[in-house]
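Check the record.
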Amino acid sequence: MKSKVLVIDDVIKNLQLVGETLNSESVEVVASSNGENGYLLAKKHRPDLILLDVMMPNITGFEVCRQIKADKELVDIPVIFLTAKAETDDILEAFEVGAVDYITKPFFQKELISRVSSHLELTLKKEKLQSYVDIVDKYVLTSITDSEGVIKYASEAFLKRTGYTKEELYGNTHRVLKNNKFDKKVYKELKESLLKNNYWEGEILNIDKDGNDYWVSVVIDAQRSKTGELKGYQAIMEDITDKKMVEYLSITDNLTKIYNRRKIEYLLDYSIKQLPRDNNSLSVLLIDIDDFKLVNDTHGHEVGDDVLEKFSKIIKDSVRQNDLFGRWGGEEFVVVLPLTNQEGAFIVAEKIRTTLAQYKFPVVGIKTCSIGLYEIKIGDDIKNTISRADKAMYEAKKSGKNKTVVYKEELQ
């Protein structure tokens, strides 16, 4: 079955070029020369991907994207912007209205094919995982134990999932499923809740007979006699292993395997909103690899991707365990530093910058980065926080690159 790609662009030559580039045995291209008709075609064809020009008469690509993302039937269709404008504000707006990627004009045909193929493949993977999730949701895993936690009953679904037979499970406790990778504090909370409230609900990482990890969402009820005597416990479980995988995909950048923009944006927003309550320091770094476009143009996107992957590893090795970081888009990264003031954040930023400047990449050699730093204040929101970090980063670029600049009011 062919994947369907809708292209919306007011320049006929662009439509022809994209159509000639993408039309194949596996991809069918549907074209529209204006935003109004493009939205109607999206409703009619439900494409797997939309390529959307930014600058169009009557209605801009941003507005078309907003309409698509406001439509329950179309909201999940990934949108890639085709744009001749590569300013940061335009790129940020593209992601703010719901785009998953952008391609600058004039584009390379190989780049277009690569980006489209990547997003179509991701869409297919998500659809496949969702079908698995729907199937798993139809089955209920149940077990009953006595007051000592010894298993007296297990449903067939439970037996199938764990890999054990009744003979192997009955008479055993759930310790046989205990996974040493799981947080032991959760088991402690479980026991305390059952003793105090006769009830516990949460998620547990188990291990089956073959040594495979699997996640379950669990509700446990204490079973008592009419006189209040504890008879045992009943657990109803749902296998959420595939859901966890979907969650992982939804918050993870496909290339670098770190948080994607959606997740790091959520974490930053949450951290900012906690400031009035916690009254702690909070800083953010916006990092951009200098002259990264030259890497792609000179050596190709495969080499560029390798630089992005290795740089994300440099960031990971340079920050603390409780620091948060993710890919903001393209060659930009965001680092959120809880309990860190401007001075402390500067130390972290310089560690990242100097480590990168000393690292020799296999093909491109030495690369540098420019970093904008902003210590967040109570009353800030995510929009002005990123804007100020971006202004500081732009100043670092303008004043010579390969440096960290702290945001100051005069940068407004």
